[in-house]
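Researcher: Last one for today. Full complex below.
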Amino acid sequence: MIAEAGLALLWLAAALSLLQLVLGWAALRENPILPVREADGEGDRVKRGGGANGLSMPLHQPAAGPPPHGSAAGRTLMNFVRPVAVAQGVLAGLAFLALIQLFLRTDLSVQLVAANSHSAKPWLYKFAGAWGNHEGSMLLWVTVLALAGAAVALFERRLRQDTLIATLAAQAAIGLGFYAFLLFASNPFTRLSPVPVEGNGLNPLLQDPGLAFHPPTLYFGYVGISIAFSFAVGALVTRDVGPAFARAMRPWVLGAWIFLTLGITAGSYWAYYELGWGGWWFWDPVENASLMPWLAATALLHSVTVLATRAGLRAWTIMLAVVAFSMSMIGTFLVRSGILTSVHAFAVDPLRGAFILVLLAFYIGGALILFGLRVRHVKEGAAFEIVSREAALVANNLLLSVVLGLVFVGTLYPLVTQALGHEISVGPPYFNAVAGPVALVLAAMMAIGPMLRWRRDALKALAGRIAIPVLLSAAALLAVVIFAPGIGWLPLFGLAVAPGVAAASVAPLWRRNLRRTPFFIFGMVIAHFGIAVALAGMASESAFTRETLVAARPGQIVGVGPFSVRFLGVTPVAGPNWTAIEAELQARRGGGAPAVLRPQARLFSSPPTPTNEAAIGTWWDGQLYIAIGEEDAEGRWQLRLWWKPFVTLIWLGGGLIALGGLLALIGRLRRERRGHPEEAAA
Amino acid sequence: MKRRLVLWLPLAAFAIFLALVAAGLYAPPDRAVRSRLIGQAVPDFDLAPGMPGRPGLASATLRQGQPHLVNVFASWCVPCRIEAPQLDALARRGIPIGGIAVRDRPQDLARFLATYGDPFRAIGADTDRRVQMELGSAGVPETFVVDGRGIIRHQHIGAIMPQDMAAIIAAFEAAR
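Model: Here's the assembly. Have a good evening.
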């Protein structure tokens, strides 16, 4: 019954999204352009900002013809769109809950459950198993899309009403295609006959507490960024690209970006400890698929500030909003079609790939055509000088776009070479070599940007402000060259840039009354500081990691970095659905207290799969990472040991970045509630 | 006018992406990692004997007119034990097999050959995996068919199973 109810809910939600689209369309036709409430205020703002030249005309041109307040029918239609969007979100959420319920009960008459679950699985993995497969993860995808639309319908009060309606209609249009994909090509509720006695079980790599929370978090960001896309489409439709629009869009972008940041950070840590390879980023197509929207969203976050504050970068901001979610959709396509091999690929089905490809062509192509047609009417905002906050943000945007382009090309390169007839794989050497240097320049740029004033600034004054960070970086460079000669130049510059960026990122708080500093300034400071922290962690991990690979007998002592590790022996252990060989090792540094680490080589019973559970010991200055391999004929065990100094900073930095985003979001929302229309020109 | 054209660039880029991906989707890729050296000469190498008293393996041997199988293996590699009977069968057919023992030790190697059979005419010790990498081999076991001029004609990735024998023999015959 639950499966049928879930399917019915899904159909209903799809019908509502069609209704939402049609209602929105009709309302906009009845009411082509609403009264331009904010046009005057906006013109004022720009003037006060000092950029009142001929270029700073607000975008919305009150069209000749339609009555100023639209028809009564149009207004009635508009009043329906919000409730429909909310109802659609609720129905999709219920359908997803139905699927979770099926997994919790291990209802093996449902094909998806039988193929991906098992009655002897701990409940957490039954729960998480709901999205550890193709159909379930697509349902989660659509649910987040619908919930995001519902959230906009419920909470967005600042956007011009016609733009809001167009936004909700765009969100419904995206939803419609993906509902069709679920219902016709990936139905999660299909029944199975005859009912099998037992399920196939979940991929043991995915049986990890991290998996219970990583995909939903990531999806909230990954799919939540669809709101930016719909906002952009809505604004293009109603020709409403201006500061007020940007201020309305910003909290949504921030919200999605926070989830995306957290999801990527968590995913990186999961790969680090679960895959047992000791690496934290593999440039796997799926990792890239989450990184690319993040890069675009980060650029968007900064350009939207220029639009909100200085009325500039209009076309560019719209473009980024389109690109960010396009990257999410392209990522979904790359992963779900199996066109690129990846550890995350669930199923390879060309039909599904073709389906998503058609959706992609329709949505992204449609948005880009709308962009080409409409954006030429968008006037660019106030002018600015080469040395100014705007210019720094433009540079930030360009650099982020370059990194995005490089990652995109690298991810797709196997397809290009395959089309040319020979296969080649593009691995970490390419990405590190091409994206690394650009990212370093970007980090340096990030240090300078917040120190600049809007519109124009003096180079001399800037030189005075960046003196301390530059000196710090130079000192760090010198120290590394002297004390740790011979490390690669990329980690070398990473170690040098990080302290300078850290110092520069807190500079905006210098000589400020901290109690009167708005939250979003703190947010920026913490997020930028987080970048410096993560950068330091990455550089240190890459420069100073020590690795030992040995075949050891119990009792033997192995050295790695500053540690001497005594291999005490192995014992068999058993978990709820696995058995394992567990090694016991005692790690000691200098005269310090010994720490006991227990890595496992696990064998899961269903499906029978070996996995490697690394043991990780954390010290204040790094992590000791031990994985156990096979036993050889003479009773020796393969052991891999890594000492990774300051590797934890990578994820600490990621957490700080997300925290900064959260503070900025709270700051923006509080300011909005107090009814501050203008931005602090800080 | 220029600005107008620029505005359509994203759409053009997206169209290229679509074309590329659509092509990729309808030509499902062969996921095997191929040696890019197929059809090319084996790289120059001269490996010391893997075991005392036995000949080592050099690329010069592979260029003396007679085709060879070159088997990349190791005593610590479990799938290599599984393919051992097939290699023995190939050796009994008179096919000369050269071994490249990757990251191995003489005493381990001797024990391995004593247990699982010894089909090799020569075994080279590739202690640092350099030759394996130059051959374009991604793992053990892997087997190459090399013709009499030292040109790589065929690559088999993974253990040679009974059902793979026909293909290997055919490739060897074709290399004569």
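The helical segments of chain B are 2-26, 78-92, 106-116, 130-135, 165-174. The domain at 46-174 of chain B is CATH 3.40.30.10 (Glutaredoxin).
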